[in-house]
Write a structure and sequence with these properties.
By secondary structure, the chain is an alpha+beta fold. The chain has helices at about 40-50, 70-75, 80-85, 170-180, 185-200, and strands spanning about 1-5, 10-15, 20-25, 35, 55-60, 80, 95-100, 105-110, 115-120, 125, 140, 160, 165-170. It has a single domain (about 1-200), classed as Ribonuclease Z/Hydroxyacylglutathione hydrolase-like (Metallo-beta-lactamase, Chain A, 4-Layer Sandwich), CATH 3.60.15.10. It is globular.
């Protein structure tokens, strides 16, 4: 099961599981729909199909295989993995930013300046494992010493993440910047929440 969030960018569906996996269908100005890190959920995919023809499936994190390849095959569109997303093509309406690039973790983020929308697969999140501080967004537990500074200062009004519900409104950019600035400072709060997070993940 998933909770479907409809918004002016398209829609987001968040799975009812411990990690609150988030997937997105983004409607470009040309009417084509881009699926981002999709998890198969029939109701959500039907709602995404109703938005328009699928242009492609974007996988923003190397280990976020999810159902990206299978859905791209079924829909007859290209499956863009992280390297492909970085090189762009086929009329991406987004700017692509490299977030992490090492042998264990390759991640890209999308910045959609016309919509003031930021899409981050893993480095930022809004679920309980990420947002341990005072705000609605936080940094991945394993990236707190090296927070994603390349997405700071954008003035985003929409934040779509791979774990948790989307955020919308004029305060989103400030929430992202604050989470990055407080990433290391909030580590003690993360440590105190670890037992609760472990129990929730069972």
């Amino acid at each position: 099961m998933a909770k479907i969030h409809r918004h002016e960018l398209g829609l987001t569906w968040v799975m009812d599981d411990a990690m609150e996996r988030g997937s997105h269908a983004l409607v470009a100005d040309d009417g084509r729909v881009w699926l981002v890190d999709p998890v198969r959920e029939d109701e959500a995919l039907a709602a995404a199909a109703a938005l328009g023809a699928t242009a492609g499936v974007l996988q923003l994190l190397d280990r976020h295989n999810r159902d990206c390849a299978a859905l791209a095959g079924e829909l007859g569109v290209r499956h863009y993995t992280v390297p492909d997303v970085l090189t762009g093509g086929d009329g991406f309406p987004f700017e692509v930013r490299r977030v992490v690039w090492n042998p264990l973790w390759k991640e890209a983020a999308l910045w959609w300046p016309q919509r003031r929308a930021l899409v981050v697969a893993e480095a930022l999140g809004t679920n309980a494992a990420f947002a341990v501080g005072d705000g609605p967004v936080g940094i991945h537990p394993l990236r707190r010493l090296l927070p994603p500074g390349m997405v700071k200062g954008l003035g985003a009004e929409h934040l779509l993440v791979g774990h948790g519900a989307p955020l919308h409104g004029p305060d989103v950019g400030a929430s992202v910047d604050r989470a990055i600035a407080r990433s290391r400072h909030d580590i003690p709060k993360l440590v105190t929440k670890i037992p609760t997070l472990i129990r929730a993940a069972r």
